[in-house]
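Priority: medium. Attachment 1 of 2:
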């Protein structure tokens, strides 16, 4: 990385306007594979930066369309997860990856504590702050938002095919995930083996965005993972967004989805009860 100050044209957050009382905030932690110019592509080829190691393929298209269909605000990251992963906790040892799915990341090889702190301040923190401020603004309307987080996953992981077309990840709060899983099960083109309940990952991860923004503050939430070969083309991603909007709208109409509650707590790192009384100020999910 160059020692020069970061370019002033690289904004770490994309915000999409929507009704603050829409009852849902749609977020996308790994929306883009962008890198500020001073990082010189982290020493990777354009092909490498187009892989799942750099971002969640198709997730941004799905997020923007879903937000539009719900009339809801959305917040998306604009920087590659290889620069710094906005969905990792600030003290997570995999916050800046030196090796990802077999690919060495040259630009991260010498990333010391000072460099990680620099990336936290310039990219990770502004994204987390944008989420928290949007939640605060929405809650101020009197309707606490449900958090809908959009990710995508690879069809193959370490040579093993993944059967799921879609997964719903969650911790202890069932208000959004359980009815969504039931609705997905009623879809005629989705068989039981193609719907993941906390697959391909577990939804309880301490310090991740859902834990920090939603679970810790008693907000209903679900993290939705769609397989990348199903949304790698924009029109396909938008078709999935239309389906999810159709399934989510009746769930989001329920009053219980828009209250904060201490009832559920978290499974992450042994946290089993208790959430913050205030709204926020400011296995691994690798593909």
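Attachment 2 of 2:
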């Amino acid at each position: 990385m160059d020692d020069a100050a970061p370019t002033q044209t690289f904004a770490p957050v994309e915000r999409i306007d929507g009704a603050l009382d829409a009852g849902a905030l749609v977020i996308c932690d790994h929306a883009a594979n962008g890198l500020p110019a001073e990082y010189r592509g982290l020493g990777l080829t354009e092909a490498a930066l187009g892989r799942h190691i750099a971002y969640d393929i198709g997730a941004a298209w799905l997020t923007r369309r879903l937000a539009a269909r719900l009339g809801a605000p959305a917040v998306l990251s604009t920087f590659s997860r290889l620069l710094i992963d906005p969905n990792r906790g600030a003290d997570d040892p995999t916050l800046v990856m030196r090796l990802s799915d077999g690919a060495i990341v040259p630009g991260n090889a010498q990333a010391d504590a000072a460099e990680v702190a620099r990336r936290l301040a310039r990219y990770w923190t502004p994204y987390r702050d944008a989420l928290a401020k949007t939640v605060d603004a929405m809650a101020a309307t009197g309707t606490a938002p449900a958090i809908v987080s959009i990710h995508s996953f690879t069809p193959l992981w370490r040579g093993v095919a993944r059967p799921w077309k879609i997964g719903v990840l969650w911790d202890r709060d069932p208000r959004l995930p359980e009815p969504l899983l039931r609705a997905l099960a009623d879809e005629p083109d989705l068989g039981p083996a193609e719907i993941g309940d906390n697959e391909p990952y577990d939804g309880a991860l301490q310090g991740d965005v859902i834990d920090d923004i939603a679970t810790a503050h008693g907000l209903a939430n679900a993290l939705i993972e769609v397989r990348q070969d199903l949304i790698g083309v924009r029109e396909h991603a938008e078709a999935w967004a239309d389906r999810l909007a159709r399934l989510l709208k009746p769930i989001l109409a329920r009053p219980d989805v828009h209250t904060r509650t201490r009832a559920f707590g978290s499974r992450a790192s042994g946290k089993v009860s208790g959430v913050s009384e205030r709204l926020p100020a400011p296995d691994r999910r690798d593909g």
